[in-house]
Structure formats: C-alpha cells, structure tokens
Amino acid sequence: MSATRYTYLGPEGTFTEAALRTLPEAATRELAPMVSVPAAFDAVRAGEAAGAFAAIENSVEGGVTATIDELTGGEPLMIYREVLLPITFALLVRPGTALSDVRTVTGHPVAQPQVRGWLRGHLPDAAWESAASNADGARLVREGKYDGAFAGAFAAATYGLEPLVTEIHDAANAVTRFVLVGRPGRPAARTGADKTSLVIWLGEDQPGALLDLLQEFAVRGVNLIQIQSRPTGEGMGKYCFAIDAEGHVAERRVSEALMGLRRICPQVRFLGSYPRAGVAQADVRPPRAGTSDADFIEAAEWLARSQDGRS
Amino acid sequence: MSATRYTYLGPEGTFTEAALRTLPEAATRELAPMVSVPAAFDAVRAGEAAGAFAAIENSVEGGVTATIDELTGGEPLMIYREVLLPITFALLVRPGTALSDVRTVTGHPVAQPQVRGWLRGHLPDAAWESAASNADGARLVREGKYDGAFAGAFAAATYGLEPLVTEIHDAANAVTRFVLVGRPGRPAARTGADKTSLVIWLGEDQPGALLDLLQEFAVRGVNLIQIQSRPTGEGMGKYCFAIDAEGHVAERRVSEALMGLRRICPQVRFLGSYPRAGVAQADVRPPRAGTSDADFIEAAEWLARSQDGRS
Amino acid sequence: MSATRYTYLGPEGTFTEAALRTLPEAATRELAPMVSVPAAFDAVRAGEAAGAFAAIENSVEGGVTATIDELTGGEPLMIYREVLLPITFALLVRPGTALSDVRTVTGHPVAQPQVRGWLRGHLPDAAWESAASNADGARLVREGKYDGAFAGAFAAATYGLEPLVTEIHDAANAVTRFVLVGRPGRPAARTGADKTSLVIWLGEDQPGALLDLLQEFAVRGVNLIQIQSRPTGEGMGKYCFAIDAEGHVAERRVSEALMGLRRICPQVRFLGSYPRAGVAQADVRPPRAGTSDADFIEAAEWLARSQDGRS
Amino acid sequence: MSATRYTYLGPEGTFTEAALRTLPEAATRELAPMVSVPAAFDAVRAGEAAGAFAAIENSVEGGVTATIDELTGGEPLMIYREVLLPITFALLVRPGTALSDVRTVTGHPVAQPQVRGWLRGHLPDAAWESAASNADGARLVREGKYDGAFAGAFAAATYGLEPLVTEIHDAANAVTRFVLVGRPGRPAARTGADKTSLVIWLGEDQPGALLDLLQEFAVRGVNLIQIQSRPTGEGMGKYCFAIDAEGHVAERRVSEALMGLRRICPQVRFLGSYPRAGVAQADVRPPRAGTSDADFIEAAEWLARSQDGRS
C-alpha cells in the first residue's frame, strides 16, 4: 500500500537507511530500498510510494547530482523534510578478525577519501578495492572476499559482522544531508526555522541575469543558504541553479521574492519549504529590519490608506 | 465657497495663472491669487480652497523649493495634476512706446537670465531693476516707473500695456512645470502615461541607504523621472528625497515598490499618482519584461498553485 | 594684484564675509565684495582674483543654486576649502532704540523663515519688509527707513548699529556651508577627513543610470555625503548630479570610483578634494574593510604575483 | 624527462586521451595515463610532468568534482588550455559480432545515461554492467567478458575491436570540457577570446557576500560564464565558488575585478586566463561600453589631468 511506503537509495545498511530511520514516522512505514535514486523517486511519481529518501549533499563531497537532477528534471516532486547525519565509519570484520589480520579492505568510492588518512596511519599495507555501496562491501566481507569493510557501525548486525574500529573519519565535520520528497502538495508547516528550495532557469544571453536573480532575494531580505549550478543538458554553458534560501514560503518576504523570480526568469520550480535540520528556532537570525510579516502587513495597510487619501 | 476655489501663487497676470487657465476646470473655478506658496497651500489645508496651483520645477532654474518644501513638510497634501508651460517673455510697454524709447526695464529676478541675451542684442544700454513678480513689473510700467516690463504676453491686457516684442527667451527649451494640489484623497485615475510622486526620508548612518532605495524601484522595473534632495532641517547633512517615478500606484510594480520603501525607510510620504504632462500614452515605454500587472497576476497565481501543490 | 585678492558675495557685513574671515589666510588677503556669485567667480576665471567665496548650502534652505550652477557650468573651477557657519541673527537697531520702539523690521528674504517664530513671540505687531541683503537691511535701519534689521551681530559695528537681541534663530541647527573656489590646480592636501566633489551627467535613456553611478561608489566603499540634481538646461527632465563623497582623490578607493564614473558617464567634472569642515579626523569612519589604500596595494601586489605565476 | 611529459586521467583509449591528442603539442609529448586525477595533477606538482590533462565539465553531467577539487585545494596549479570534445559513443565488439549477438554490454557509469535511449530502441534485452572506464570496458569485451562496450570509436584499434555502431548519444549536445594544467606561471597569451578562472572563498556570516562578489564583476562589465559552488570541507553550509569569467587578466576590466575580489574576499585563487575553446574571436561580444582597455586608459589620463588641475 503506497501511502505507508517510503523508498530510499539502498541497499539496506547504508547511511541513507540510518538517516531515514531518524524520522519518527519511519517506524510506521514500509521502508523499501531501491537500486538508484531515479528508481526511488519514480516510485513516488508512479504513486507506488508516499515518499522517497536520498542524500542530496555531503559537506565534503558536495551536491549529490543524481538527487538534484531528479528534482530539477522529470515530473515535479517536492521536499518535505531534511535530515543531517554525521558520517563516521566503522571497520567491519568477520567475528574474530584482529586488526593485524586485515590485508584487504573495501567500501563505496566516496568512503575512500574519508578513511584514507586512517588507513595510512593504521593499515598502511592494506589494499583498497571499491564496492558498489558500503553495504555491498559489508556483504563481500561476510562472503570472505575482503577482510574489512568501511561502513556505518549500524550495518554490522545486518551483515553478521563486528565493528572492529569505530568513529573513523578524516574531515572533522563530515555530514550528509538527506531529503524526503513526495508528490507536490502543501508545504510542510512553518516552524520559524525553515528553508525554501527552488530551481531557477535563466534566460538566454543575459549577462546580469544571475545578479538580477540574487537581487530579488536581497531586496526582500532573504538570505541564501546555497546556490548550485547544474547543466540544463542543452549544451555547454547552459545552466540552471538549485537554490536553498532561508525562510518559508508562507512568509511574505519569501513569497514576494518567489513571485519576483517567477516574473523575471523563464522557469522557476518550487521544491518546497520545510524545517531546517540542525538549526534551532532560537538560532535563527531574525529577518532583516523591514522584512518581517508584520512589516509587510503594515506597509500594505499604509498603501491602502494612501490610495484612499487617509495617509 | 471652497469647493469651487483654486488658489495660486499670484498676482494675476503671471505664468502661474496662465498655466492654471490651461486646465479645463479652471473655467468653472474661482481663481484666487495668493501672496505666497505657503498661503496658497494653507488655504487648501484649512478647507478654504479645493486646490492650490504653483510652479514646482523649471527646466532652467531647477526645483521650486518653496513648493517642494510645502509638500514635504506640514499637513499632507497630494498632487492631482501637472501642467507644463513653455516660458517665453514679451516686452510690455505703455501704448505708443517705441523700442528706442525704452531706457529702463524690470521683471522678476528669475526672468533676468532668460532675457539677458536678448537685452544685450537689442537694448544694450537699458538698465534692469528687479520687481517682486513679472506682473508687478507690468504694474510699475503702467504707473510710469519703468519703460518696459518682461512678462507673459497674456499679462498685457490686464495691465493696459502692449507687447512690443514677443517670444523672448534665451534657453531654447525653457519650460516650467506646475502642480495642482489638494487634500489627500483618491489619486487621479490611471491613464497609461502616469507618474507617482513621493518624499522619502533615509535612516541615520546608512551609507548604502540611497542605493537600497533605488534598488526597491529597480527590482520592480520602475524608472525614476527625477530625484531631488532637500534638507530635513535637522542639521547639515540630513536630507530627504523628493522622487518622481514612472507609473501609477494602481500598477502592481509601483505599489510593490512603494510598500518596499515603506518597509525600509523611516518615513515615506505618498504625494499622488497623476497623468504626465507632455507625454502621450503612445510614447510611454512599456514596463520592463516581467513587471506588467499581467505578470504580477500570473506570478501570484503560480505561487498559489505552488503552495497548494498544484504547480 | 590678483594673487592676494579673494572675491565674495557682498555686500560687507553679511554672513558670507563673516565666514570668509574664519579662514586664517583671509587676514592677508584683499577681500572684495561682489554683486553676485557669477561676478565673484568670473573674477577668478579672469585671473583678477585668486579665490572666490560663496555659500553653497544651507541646512534649512538647501543648496544655493547660483553657486552650484556656477560650478556646474562655465569655465571649470575647483573647490579648495569649505567653511561651516552657524546662522543666528541679531536684531540691529540704532543706538538708544528699545524693543518696544521697533515697529518695522527688515532683512534678506531667506532670513524671514529663521526669525518668524521669534517675531511672533516678541514683536507680533512688527511689519516685515524684505531687503536685498541682511547688510542692506542694516544700512536702511541706519538711514532711518526701518526700526530694526535682522543680520549677523558682527554687522552692527560696520553700520553704526547696536545688537539689541542676539542668538535669534528658529531652526536649532541652522548652518550654512561656504566654499572657497579657485582655478583648477592640485587639490588640497589629504588630511584624513576629506571630501570630494563632482558633477556627473548621465546618458540619455538609461533607466538604471543613477543606480549604476551609485554602484561605482558602493563597490569601492565610498560613501556619499550629498547628491543634488540640477537641470542641465537642455529641457525638462534632463539633469546632472552634484555629488559630495567621503574621501580624497589621493585615496585609491576614491580615484578608482572616479575613473569608473568617467568610463560610464558622458561627462564628469572633478570639483576638488578638500578637508571636511566640522569633522575631526578622529570622527571619520575608517574605510570599509578591503578599501583602504593598504588593501589596494596588497591586491595589486597579489595580482602582479598571480600574473607572474608566483601566487 | 618532465618537460616533455603530460599526464592524463587514463587508461589509454578514453575520451580524455582523444581530447588531449587534439592539442598540437601533444604530438611531441610523452602522454602518460594515470589512475586518478589527483595522481595526474600531483605528478605536475612534483615536477615529474609539465602538464596534466583531465575533464572538468560535461554538458550533461555537470562539473567533474575530482578535477575542480584538485584545483581548489592542494598546492596551486594553473589552467593553460581548454579543449571541448563532443561525446558520442561507438558500440565496440569483437570482429565478427553482429548486433543480434550482443546480449551483454558495458561502459563507464557516466556513459549509461547517454546510451540508455539507444539501448532501449536497439538492444532492449541487453544487460548493462558498469566498468571502471570506457577503456576498461573495451578491454573486458576483448577478453570475452561482455559482448559489447560503449566507448569512443577511437578506442577500437587500441583494443582490437570493431565499432559496430557509431555516433550513439542521447543528448544532442553532449560535450565534455577538458583542461590542461601546469605549475603556476605566466598565463597563456591574450587572444581576444579568452576566459579567466578563479576560486573564491566568502567570509563568515555575510548574507550578501555572493551579491557583493558578483557586483565586483558587474561594475567592470565582466560577464560570468559559470559559477559553481563546492564545499570547503569545513562543515555543512561552507562553500567556495569556482568561477569562469569572460576576458583575460591582461585586460584592465578583468584585473580590476580580480583586485576587487581579492580585497573583499578572505581568499581568492587565480587559476589562469586562457583561450576559450569553441569561441572564435569574431563571436566574442565586445566589452560593455566604458570597459575596454582604451576606456580605462582614457579614464586614468583624465584622472591624472584632474589631479594636476589640467582638466
């Protein structure tokens, strides 16, 4: 039954599943691992799942283009939640293996730069080979193909392995951001610590188009969290921009900026407003002076009075 | 009866009266000359007149500060009409006077630079003395104090004089702009060739405040016609800005810009939207792409769909 | 001998002369009162005077257009000094006159708004008539034509009068700014509390031209002190802008902004860099981060290294 | 001997090698395939190669993060040339294989989206498995592991295969951009159709920092070709921007913009100015009015005259 199914980029035992399980509602959903981000998202488009979950950005590796491109192209989807998960690896081994026994290790290619420093210090002679996923690496260790796999510690139980070493990571702040997407609907409720995601296409031959785009935000006091260019696929030099901005579309400063963008850009895709993971309401900078909803309402009332001659 | 009285900066026989008489409704109004712009405007504030008429700008001399300051300070008034009048002078003399008889001439001080060139060429030996107004100069000629007065040709009849020479002016394009003001009410109807007048005060110590102000217009594609700084009277270096912008407050691009200004500026005074004198509707540049009312409506509909998940 | 002569807007006994005498070098100059600002400035242009001195701005009345227009048009001149003078009036009377004897008063028309409140409170029945200058008013009192003249207290001695009441003014902060102009030459030396004056003409039909102009300053962190539009005389709607900006042309941020303006504007007239009157060096906000001369030099060195491959 | 060696991302027979061989000087260089972009670039840093060659952007897939991150971090390198190569695939088979014999196909994962449509139409039942590179896939076909490999037609000879079908691609305009990097040195000579590459870090907590950055370009009339955000590795939400701009650092508008960026940004890395591939000099838009070198020179001369009083 689709309303209770969430798809995610599998297999089981990956960081994606671990991140998904941090969502309270995950406990009451059927969690279905899929072979690719497009497969996970298409299940939502087809009505076979209520949501799809995938990584969209890593603080070390950058944007996950498969996810961004699925949101940028194809049948529209919207983001309803985001999850931040610190990424630290465990070295998973078959029970009984000692560190000195480990001669071959495996893991997903993106894990390699994160564990390279640790390997150099602790297993300088171990040979690395890439696996299709961290979970797949764990499976290959269980099958005896490699001595150790780098994966999340939580994957040990699934694959009958033991975490020999944990908390392995090179970059102190490696974090991955995941999003839960669904078919277009009402955005998540406003919490006071929200973000709004968009994709914006610029017109042809407009040298200042990006500047104009940023001005639409700046004039309304809406700060950008991220801007990422992606090729449109129409040839070298044609880009669209995936943008995360502070605030919720229910805020006047945000909605006016969105309408401004809609007017000056050939295409704008609204990807949703949803709570910012890892940002407490108390930590949110208040809107710049003159851009709160109260300021918008006061200005509209002033204008109404002015147009009636009651200024 | 105040509803049929228009005050204007007198005396009779000035360019101001001539400009006022170009308004169709002037034929059915009692036109009351006043001794000063404040007097003319205060009569409106006191309910003793329906309108007041005064010059606000001359294409050679610049802004008429008495008029601007009356609109900037005091009890609010609004502009409902503007009139452009080309300024050319006649040399008025008592009947029978020949050019060779003219040894002394008079006129308002602002007339002098306009006729200086003509005097040098035609009456190099004539002595100039200033009068309180062009009309007053005419009166003094009638009384025999001077031989000639520079004034509008239309003033000749009023003072029993003859226009000896007409079409005297130095600057080819000398034009004066006049405004009809009244108590605050609904702005003049939108014609498609309109302007909107404002006074804006900037906050303290904001180096980029003027730039921010202009951005509020620019982002909505509203072009400025004029910007003029005036001291606020609170000390050297404190200014407000009298601004004329293209468009009517009934246009969305204009009203959104006004609300934006209201939000970021400590004070905004709306002085009205009214037809641009001397600009035919056909000559008006269409709003920049994305800033027509249709564009605003389409963007609002898109936003509503987006917030409902119908994008 | 022209090198020792300074002209000023006369007659003697005006605030202009008082302001001029605050300059140390005035003590060793021949101070020559002139009948008009153009006459004072033309004497400099003709080499008959080393400097000319005139009011350029009043904190209550605004810009003195005669002075601004002389700097904007005609043979170029430059500003080398500015002087601020608080404007307070004295009521000058013939010796022996008591306040109760004063029935008629006179003064320059711009004095009237400054003393109106005082008159209402202290001499509600006194009749006001305008004089050609405050000094001329004093002369007329001496001749017995009026009972009292509003002028600077310093004018009393010149005209054989007594200051009956002093420190009369309505606006608490009435200040007039005067400038000393000369033929173009090297600007005044940099003091650390300087300003730079310019006149800028915008091109035809450029809706965003004023914004572009301000961006040239803003990008280099140069704050504006004042911007004032003046008609170019080429017809209604054609303006140039007289601008005062913080900083000295010897500063890199200022000179780069000036060159930027020169490139984008059809005409720029440099009116000089000179010490800001009334602003101590200690009160000057330091240049925005990244806009000091040291920052410009460091960036130029970095660029040179980069272009040599030594980055 | 390092001066004649160019490293590139191998193995042999890839599009990278094909692109590298389009450079005239490649004919006289030892071309050394390396296992990774870091390996290829580190050889240059270590002085073991004069240049390294790698893809930096694909018009369908976007930026090649491995290459960008090598330029952004580590010991500085500079770009001296770029090459554009249209990407079309051939289906390589062992001699004698017919299309109907092809049951399994392989290729680099990024090839898959490019040939997916063709496969659906022509080999709907063929099973795809990914290879480490297109060249590696060809090798596996020669070894009999798969029936066909998608690779460049030029790879056929190297691996003893035949191109059964050529010109396979889904996106009509799939193009890959490659760069030749070397140790920092003098930039490539100016050709009139150049680009300049930079990496820019923004300061902390500056909401408008990206806008300020773009203004530095805009004020000098320098158009951006591309802007791409990359994580700095210091935690979620910290980005630097890899930017390609029109023009050569030897142009005044470009060098002034670079110095401006250097002043306002905590860090700027100059990656070189070099000829734009695929852009003829005749197709280059001339610099915006007021931003040519001649305009800069004229403005500097004007400033010098102004500072000498010769304006």
Automatic annotation (TrEMBL), chains A, B, C, D:
It catalyses: prephenate + H(+) = 3-phenylpyruvate + CO2 + H2O. Keywords: Amino-acid biosynthesis, Aromatic amino acid biosynthesis, Lyase, Phenylalanine biosynthesis. One of its GO terms (molecular function) is prephenate dehydratase activity. The keyword Iron does not apply. GO terms for biological process: L-phenylalanine biosynthetic process. The record marks T176 as: Essential for prephenate dehydratase activity. PROSITE patterns: ACT (PS51671), PREPHENATE_DEHYDR_1 (PS00857), PREPHENATE_DEHYDR_3 (PS51171). This is Prephenate dehydratase. It comes from Streptomyces montanisoli. The gene is pheA.
